[in-house]
Every structure is written in C-alpha cells, then in structure tokens.
Write the structure tokens for this entry.
Amino acid sequence: MLNADQLSQHYRQVRAHTLALAAPLSGEDASVQSMPDASPTKWHLAHTTWFFETFVLEPREERFKPFDAAFRALFNSYYNAVGEKHPRAQRGLLTRPGLDTVLAYRADVDERVLRLLARLDHAALALVELGLHHEQQHQELLLTDIKHLFSCNPLQPAYREAAVYAAPPKPLQWQAFAEGLAEIGHAGNGFAYDNEGPRHRVFLPAYSLATRLVTNAEYAGFIDAGGYRDASLWLADGWDWLRAQGRGHPLYWHQGDRGWEEFTLEGHAPLSHVSYFEADAYARWAGARLPTEAEWEHAALHGGEHLQQLDDTCWQWTASAYLPYPGFRVSEGAVGEYNGKFMVNQMVLRGGSVATPRSHVRLSYRNFFPASACWQFTGIRLAR
Amino acid sequence: MLNADQLSQHYRQVRAHTLALAAPLSGEDASVQSMPDASPTKWHLAHTTWFFETFVLEPREERFKPFDAAFRALFNSYYNAVGEKHPRAQRGLLTRPGLDTVLAYRADVDERVLRLLARLDHAALALVELGLHHEQQHQELLLTDIKHLFSCNPLQPAYREAAVYAAPPKPLQWQAFAEGLAEIGHAGNGFAYDNEGPRHRVFLPAYSLATRLVTNAEYAGFIDAGGYRDASLWLADGWDWLRAQGRGHPLYWHQGDRGWEEFTLEGHAPLSHVSYFEADAYARWAGARLPTEAEWEHAALHGGEHLQQLDDTCWQWTASAYLPYPGFRVSEGAVGEYNGKFMVNQMVLRGGSVATPRSHVRLSYRNFFPASACWQFTGIRLAR
Amino acid sequence: MLNADQLSQHYRQVRAHTLALAAPLSGEDASVQSMPDASPTKWHLAHTTWFFETFVLEPREERFKPFDAAFRALFNSYYNAVGEKHPRAQRGLLTRPGLDTVLAYRADVDERVLRLLARLDHAALALVELGLHHEQQHQELLLTDIKHLFSCNPLQPAYREAAVYAAPPKPLQWQAFAEGLAEIGHAGNGFAYDNEGPRHRVFLPAYSLATRLVTNAEYAGFIDAGGYRDASLWLADGWDWLRAQGRGHPLYWHQGDRGWEEFTLEGHAPLSHVSYFEADAYARWAGARLPTEAEWEHAALHGGEHLQQLDDTCWQWTASAYLPYPGFRVSEGAVGEYNGKFMVNQMVLRGGSVATPRSHVRLSYRNFFPASACWQFTGIRLAR
Amino acid sequence: MLNADQLSQHYRQVRAHTLALAAPLSGEDASVQSMPDASPTKWHLAHTTWFFETFVLEPREERFKPFDAAFRALFNSYYNAVGEKHPRAQRGLLTRPGLDTVLAYRADVDERVLRLLARLDHAALALVELGLHHEQQHQELLLTDIKHLFSCNPLQPAYREAAVYAAPPKPLQWQAFAEGLAEIGHAGNGFAYDNEGPRHRVFLPAYSLATRLVTNAEYAGFIDAGGYRDASLWLADGWDWLRAQGRGHPLYWHQGDRGWEEFTLEGHAPLSHVSYFEADAYARWAGARLPTEAEWEHAALHGGEHLQQLDDTCWQWTASAYLPYPGFRVSEGAVGEYNGKFMVNQMVLRGGSVATPRSHVRLSYRNFFPASACWQFTGIRLAR
C-alpha cells in the first residue's frame, strides 16, 4: 500500500487529471444529462469530491464543517447508508451549483485532504486510496458520458480528434491454454477492490483465446451477412432488445455515403460500443464464443505476451455473470456498498480501454455492466 | 397596424426585454430542460430569433445566407411546413450552440431585420409584428419554465424576490350581466391572432362574475375542508390525474412549519399555478362555476371597471374548450400552424398574468392549455 | 313518463334483448377483455344488473339481501359514491363468477325488480327507467367490445354476417339553414339524460349540412391522396396519435389483394370506426368541416326529412367539445355521476348507429368519446 | 432411453395427467391470462399438443394435414425457426378456439402420435420423449399460472384445498462437504435437457448446506425485524424492485386478523413464492448465503440422505446465474431454441416442487427464472 507521501503525490495527479479531462467543456456541456445511465461532467466532478469529504474528512477532521451541507444528499450516488440522495435521473437539472462553485468545492476539499493526509492512520489512508480509484472510474465515465451527450446533438461536436488506425491489424491468431486448476483473483499487497478477491482456485478446461480484438471491418462483415436479422444467432433477450430499438448496427454507427461511418470509423480500428448481446451474437456467428473471466485472467497472467490490446483498447465482454467469488464478504460501512450490491443481472468485462487511466488497470479487475449497455468502450475478444 | 418606424421601435423594445429577462441566468441555467413541456431559456432565445430568420429574412433578403444552416431544424418548434424539427423533449441536450453563440445569433438577425424593415411590404411587416407577439408569448414561457427548473433543485434558487401582498384583498363581490345577444372576438385594426376572430354573435344567459380572483387563503380553505379527498367535487379525469400523482395541493405549495408555504405564499396573494381540474373542483366546492370565455370577454368589455385583476395577475381558466370561432380559417403558409392545429383537448384561459408583457394583453386574447397544466400563472375567477 | 305497467313491459323487453345479444357468445368469449376501454360481455351483463340491484332494490326492498355481497364492488363501474370498485383494466380477470352465475344473477334481480315495480313511487320508477336506458347504452358497448375482441383473434371469428350495401348511395347534397336564434336541448316529458338539458337558446350562423354520411369509397380517396401523410390536414394531437401508432387507415381496415378490405368493406357502405382526429382531417381535406352539436340538432329537428342516415348508421362526430349546457346541474346522489363528471377532453357525437336500440335514440342525445376513440360505430357527416 | 412401447405408455400417462390438472377449471378459467409471464390453461393444453404436431407429426406423417393450419402460429411459444408466433401478451385474447376444440385437438394429435410411434426411429422417439418432458414443465406452469389468475380475483377461488403442515419441522442443521474437484452435469443414459451437460469438473471449496428449507415462520421473523426496510440487506436491483412495487412481503401473503395469512400459510409450512432478491436478502440477514448450483448438485448426489425437501417442496434459488456449461452446444434445428437462448439475466433453481411431476425430477435439472420471478413455487435452502 502507498504511504502518506506517495499517496499525497498520487492524489494530486489523479485530481488534476480529472480537471484536465473537463477542461475542454463549457459550463453548459458540463451540466446536462443525456440519459439516466449517464451523468453530467459537473456531477462527476462534485461526486468524486463528495466521496473524500464524506468518507475521509467528515469523520476525522476536527470541527468538520461541510463546504455546503446540501451537497451531502445532492452528490451522493447510491450509498443508502449515507442517507438521502438526489434522484439519479435528475442529476442534469442541477444548474446550481454552477461549474465554478463545483471547482471551488474541489479546491477546498483537496486542500483539506492534503492537509489531513499526514495524520491519517492506515485505515484512513486506505480510504483515500479507494477514493482515488473511485475517481479514476469516474474519469472514464466522464468521457463515455460526454461522448453520449455529444452524440445526441445534431451539430455533432467533438471532444477531441479521433485516433487514426492507418495500418491493418495483425492476423487474428489463437493462443492455447491447457486444462488444469488455476488461481484467480487479486494477489499481493497492491490496491484492489473487494470484488477481486478472495483469490481462489477454479478448474479450467483447455481453451484458446484470440490474440487481438475484433475489428470494425470484421463486425461489418457480420452485419452484411444479415447478422441483425437472424434470430438464431441471438440470445432471446438480445433479440427482444434489438427489435424494441430497431437496432441494426452498433451505437454511434451510421450509414454514410461511403458505407459505415462512425466518429472514428476505420476498418482497421478495433470495434467498440457493442452490448453483450451483440458480442455474444457475433461470437456465435464467427463459430467461437466469449471467454469466461477465469479464462481471461488466467490467459492474461500466463500468456499475456502473446495477447495484444489486453487493457488499453476496449473492455472485453466475458461470458461470466458478475457474481461474488467464493468467500467474498462486503467491506464494513458505507463503502461496502461499492461493489457487492450490484452482483445480479450484470456481465463481467475484463481489461481496460483507451479511456482507462494506466494506473487504474489490473489483470484482476472486474468491470461490470448490464448486457444491454453499449455507451462504454466495449469490444470483443473471442475464445474457443 | 404599426408602420415601419413604429415597428422598428417596438422590435427593439421587445427584443431587448427578452435579453433582460435572461440576464440573471447563467449559461447552465439557460441550457437545461426540466420537463418536456418546458424549454430551456437558450432555446427560447434562439427559437424567437429563428422565427424572424425563417419567416422574414429567408424569403426576402437578397443573397440570404443563414447564420447557421443547422439552426433551421434545431430551433423549429412545431412548424411541419418548414421541414424537420429537433424533438421537443431533447431541447435540453443542446449544450452547443452555447449561450454566447445564441446571443450572437440574436444580434445578427436583429441587425438584418432592422436593416430590411424599411423596405418591407405590408404583408411582411405584419409577419414582423406577428413575430414580436410570438416573442412576447415566449417571454412569459421563459419565466414559467425557469421557475419550474428552479423548483426541481433542492437548493431552491430564486429568479427574483417574490412580490409581497401585505394588505387583505377587497371582499369578493358579484357583478351581474343581463341575458342577450353579445358580440365577441377581435374588433378594430390592431393586431390579433387569427384565433381571436371572426367576430361573431353569441347568445348569453344572465350571469354574474366575481370581481376578483380567488386567494391562497380561500383555496387553503378548500384543501382543509378535504377538497382533494372528495371525488364528488372532481371531473373524472381530474380525479385520476390527482391520484396518479398523489397530488394534495397546488404545484409549488409545500407544508412547512407555519402551514402552507409557497415561494410567495401569503394568504392575501392571489392563487396561482392551479390546473383546470383544480379550478373546476374549487368552483364546484364554492357553489359556483367557471365562466365561459364569451361571458368573460363580454364582462371585460362592458363591466371592466368593476372587475379587478383582469389581466395583470393570473390567467383565468374558463369553462370553454379551445375551439374555432364560427367561420375561422387558418392563415396561409407556415404561420397558419400557429393556432388552429391545437384546437382539441385544451381549455381556454383569459386575461393575462404578472409575466405577460403589457403590450401583449388584449381582452379578445385566447390563451389555451391542457386541463392538467399548472406551471403557468393560472388562477380562478368564479362565475354563477 | 312511463307508468308502472308500461315500464314493466319495457323492462322485460330491454333485459331480454341484452340476453339475445349475448346468446351467440361462449362463456370464454364473454369473459375476456381485449383492451382497458372495452369490457367483457359478462361484465356488461352483470354491471347492468348491479345498477338495478344497487340503486333500485337495495334502498327499497324489505330485508334486502344482495345476490352476492362481493358483486357490489366487483360490478361497480365508476360510481365513487357507491364505494370500492374493481379496477377497470382487470375486468377480464374475473373468470368467476362464471357466465352461468351471472345469468342467474340477472334472473334473480329481474324477478325482484318486477315484483317491486308496482309499489314504487315516481322517483323510483324514474330510476328504473334510467337503468333501462343505461342498459341500452351497454347493449351497444357489448357489440363494439366483442367486435374489438374478435378483431384481435387471428382466426377472425364473426359475430354475425355483415350487412351488404349493394346499391350506390345517393349523391351527397347540402341542406341549407338560415342564421338565427335556435333552441336546443331536450324538450317535453319523455325520458332524457341530465346532460341533454336545460333547453336553451343559441345563436347559429347560416350553415349547410350534408344529406348523408361519408362512404368508405370517399374515405379511400382521402387515403389514396396521401391524407395520412400530410401533417397540414391534421390537428397536432391527431398527427402525434397517428404517428405514435403508425396508423395509415381506419381501425379494422387492412390492405388485401383487392385493395382495402374490412369486415364489411364495400365502397358504398358508410364509413365507420374513425376517430375524431380522422373525421376532422377528412373534413379539412374535403374543403368542409364537422357540424357543431347545435347545428346538428337544429338541422335534425327542422330539416330532418332531407337528412339520411340520421340515427341508424353511425354516430357522427361533431366539432363540439362535451361541456355542460348553461344552467346544467348534476342529479342528486350516485346517479349524478352518470354524465357530468366526464365533461372534459371528450367530443360530442350525435345521432345513433346500427347498434343503437331504436327506443334509445333521441335527437337531443349527447354521446361523447375521447378524440382518439375509434372502436365505436363512428362516422362523418360534413358541414360547411 | 425408453423404447417405443415404454414411450407409448409414458405418453398416455403424461397426456392424461395434463387433462386431469385442467379438469377442475371452466372454459372461462382456462381462457384468461393474468399477466404476460403467465399463460391460459387452454394455451398450455394446445401448445404442448402443437409441439408434437409440429416436431413429430409434420415431418414424418404421410400426407400430413394439420388439425387447423392457423394453430401453427397461434400456439408457437418462442420458436423463431418455426416461423410466426402469436404475441405472448395476447394469449389471453384467444377465446376461439374454445376449450372443447382444444380438447379435440389433443385427442386427434394423441391418436396420430400413438399410431405413428411404433414406426419412429431413434431420433424421432427422442423428440417424443423431449415433448413429454416439455409437457411436464407446462403441467407445473399450468398450476402456477392458474394460482396467479385466481389470486387476482377478489372472490379468491381455490383450485384445491391447501396442504396442512401440522407438525413443526425438524431443527435446521448443516451438512458439511469437504473441498475438492467435483463432477457435475448429467451422467448416464436417461433423458436430460441439453443444458444439463456436458458433464464437467468444477473445483468446490468446503461448504455446508442446510438440511431443510426455510419456513414461513422463519421468514416472518425477517419481515418483523424490518428486513424489507433495510437497504443494506438487498441487492441494488432488488431494492429498486421492492420499492417500485411497494412490496413488503412475499407474493400471496396478506396481513389478516391473525397476522400473516397465505392460502396455505402456517408457520411450519415451507416458504414459497419468493423472488431471488428476497431469497438473497433473507440469506444475508440470516448470516448465510445461497448455494451455488454446483454445491447443490454435489451435495444432492453425495449427501442426499441427510437433505430433506430436496425436490418435492419448492424449487431452490441458487447463487448461480444461468450460463452454459463448458463445451455446451445447442441442439440442431428448432428444438435447439429450447434452452440455450435464455442464458442471460436468469438465475438457476434446483430441485423440484409440489407441482413437479415425479418422473420429471432429476438432480442435474437446471430450472431458471429472472431474479424478480415469484409466481413459481420457489423457496430457500441456505448455505455457508
């Protein structure tokens, strides 16, 4: 675990990075919510600050006085133990406090946390570290949420220029792994979320993993072959989802004069923004399947050198539902609401994306979203 | 009708007043939409400008070039004849163009309209005048919409200080009118919307009208007497509406330590923000009824000196459905969509409110809203 | 008003006619509800009986004992004053009591009502008469509701053979009426609902009425001319309704090999099953309008000999919203809920249909439905 | 596998049992659908027959002629490969064909299947056997669906008298199992669904299983202790589900004069009709957890003699999401839609219930329902 000095340094870096991500956005951009699943940038800025104020400062600061007492409920996301919370779907109605006030809130809490840091005990330092990982998650959400907001605007504003994937990808190969007992889950002293443990044994049959992710061009082949019109390729819920929405292609794709066009759409580029339903249907069409999370983690640990795009491109849907590891127990107190209570009706994603901060990536990391979610940077690695 | 000079003067005044109304609001306040019925301030600012650009400049300006071609669809409200329109419920997602750009849009169009004005023919001047009345309607909506947005914010920001009604109102009296044929509808040369004509005869039975509006204190008596729990007082649709929402009092009222509290809640103050359902139920409870719009207009013309709060306090629900007058024909072209197409499932309101610009008030004016609407400044004048 | 003997005779006839209407239906047909607006045949059979049991027998029969105490809530439609009621949308879940039990319920109440009839005072006899008119309304609803249920069945069962309109209709002509004061509303001693009075004066401008209803062929011309794709013909609410449903033709029409096919679709046949929205749009397209209810009633009284299909073909949408006549007061007691509480968001229909019992037809009759309703036998008579 | 003679015998028994289950129901009872998840009895009777007609008779019978060509779509449940299907939520609108016709359909298909049986090859006999297991599933659904329908009727009809649990249950004990590699999945030659294989190895940590199910009295203790008001006990989705419905107790429970009353509610009786959310929350409150399906199956195989109520009382929610076993492949053809396409957003239940036919029970059986489902006979066995 990081000591107080290291943590102080890390704190400054993470907090500054959030501000840098918000810098290209106007107060208006930062206030609006484009769907209940997404949150305004301003809310991300404030909620990550609320985490430190509520869990670190409030119980430890002498003569604690909140920056603004109303923020306690206003910027609570889902912690029932903390009390009231502003309804999720109404986060975009909070034109006040303005962005300026939220930035002042950040500065105030930063100063107080950094002042307090040297005097914190081990448990409190662990909370600060948790808060920074929490903030890094919101950094990624900030980007996916603003991408969604901008996609709703007919003017199609861009957050930044798209990456260019000029060169064709290497041919897809299969990396094989033999059957046997494997250990998965977080090991060692570094930080991990509670849901990454306990480390435990699983029996894995022999399997192979694709060495890279599926590309846009490969997925376009699935569409052109009638993939969205063939019920036999889809899970029943996926077929219903697709038909209820009239969906015939991934989110953010649209047919242009030169075929499929996305913000960054080049055939070479890795496919992104697919739901689990789409990933599962594509895999079936391709005569393959999605890996389980145990397969993915075992392969990443023991065959990682052969696997490209492991954690810097797209989160990779696994065939595993998000469930507790054997012996899992939620943490004490409000932070115990962090992970455990979401363990139903979600699928696990592994790896990391272009939007994931490098210091936030771990091979044992268990990201999770409902099977219909597609506004995250989510792609496909095949298994068989 | 106003000549070009008068119109030029009026144009400057109306357009400046809209800016003054928006002045207390931040870019964030101006961008957010709190419900599908309401629009962001920024949208009001842009849409009223779009009206002049689309209906006045585009067909008449030499080498017309739009300020931004995308605005044609973006700020179209409901004119099908103009083409595409941005979905009403998504007006709040337009963080771009920013408030600054919209203000520049206003300045640009203003300059071009004023330059063109001297050369416009009669029909075109009439369109400009219509556009200014249109803008005055949006001035009132801007205020009611921002009031609703702020009401959704737990911090309860205030747009401006509430009016104080220190003195008790005069006792409610009844002004009587004899039966007979009356003429209603707009007369003379001044401006009026198409729906205010043709002027026509109606037969009115004898009736009486209350000399003032119902007060908050009087309405609180209705609540205290169980008015919201007695189905026999309500229209069936009103009873369903009330129960679906768990409504037990007018919008913006809440029970505080000292009884009912509203932003401006004093017993003496006139009741506002009631739906037609509430107005109708109150009238029934009070042993009275709501006036028809013909009664209201006839009384306003012939007994106006005895009637207080006629057009400067609250719009007054009438018992009349919004329907065409005999012989009504919609105007030619896109502006024909202004009024006629809404003539079903709406009730007529007469008078004017604290938020209605004085030059926008007419005794023949037919305002209209669905029976459930209560975010406008809507009150009750009794009849019997 | 009918005396006890006449009423006894009328009672037997009306009650027997309801049974005759239900005779072609199985217990299964009679139990199912195809949409919240419609009710199962069994419910109609029971509810009309409940009316007599609750309003006639219960307050007057010595040692009154209900046939089944649970029926009081089970078969209450919307009378809040009577107490609890079974939710409207769940009428189709009542497989018990079975049809046999409901028929026994009818027989039991019939016997008791007929036994009591000779001893009833004037007010009670009036209630029985009201109950019979109430039952006649449900006779028509029984037919429209079973037609809707059968239309949901891919097997397309038929209630009875369709009428044949072999001969072409007479040419549409216009019957003219001069301007002047007219009296409308029920007159005389015969039965009428409370909403048909008080009789009162209205001023009518000069107008003309079509001598017959619009035919299927004429309406097909409107469709073929793009009527359902031209927003300028429709009320805004109608256009939204049409697009939300993807509606491109009247209810029960479908494109077949030989063009439009309906159960009874022949070009000569009068158009039926259109909403107010469709009637209003057709009239606009045809360069005409719908009559007001005052115009319709005045014409029916004074030019009836020239007007065909007045009350035996389809109910005719008028341009009048359903509102109280001047001086209208609801009746005392629960039966006061019969008409008055529906006076908002409904349009008036006049005349009568093929499904209306002949003794239920009156020129002053005010039928009413929401503007979107189209499962009734509703057609179009033009005015100008 | 059963030979043709055995199968013929089994066929007669299973088909007769379905009729026996439907015998207490009227045609009306058999036609109505109380919610989209449930189906009318008549539909169950017809759909199980459709299975034999479509999958067994149609491809094999010489000069096959359907009983009624329209039934092919009408009684298809969810087999996209078979073609059109009647919408699930509208199964209750099919008053025709009547119950009598459906019974004739059954008799006709039975005669033809039995005549054909002696000449069928191995693959076809396997299809008949599958069809009988399919029918046994619908036997249980028929009972749960009719129980739900009757629960919607204020008259509270009973299908049959409730079982009496007079004696207190044995004390709950814990049966322990050591860690190690286990094999789960179907073994041997008997019938099993495709989703029960392939048999495969899993590593199980040491665990204990409760020897009996949770009782009504135990669950009432959870309610009385505030279990439905303590968010910390619930999965987030479960908490939302509970609050959206205002749920404070299991389905079919209601507070009576003598405390909780259910159709069969005695403290000694095993708890039934709980959702996964409720089972999971109860387990957390009780300081335990739900077993995984691998634990359950291993325990049932190796410690079954100590485990009561294994498969004859209630299906038991497991902590396992419904996912394919390693190496799972769906069957060829339409029957491949039987299980695989539902493998997302469902939880596995193990065992069997009072409503499960004895010949339908297997220790490898994988039942599955969404986490919110509670109209099945679903209970709780704790693990730790």
Remarks:
- Chain A touches chain B at residues 26-32, 34, 42, 70, 73-74, 86, 90, 92-99, 149, 152-155, 157 (CB under 8 Å).
- The mean pLDDT of chain A is 93.
- The two ends of chain A are 38 Å apart (CA to CA).
- The beta strands of chain A are 174-177, 180-184, 200-204, 207-210, 254-256, 259-261, 315-321, 347-351, 367-369, 378-379.
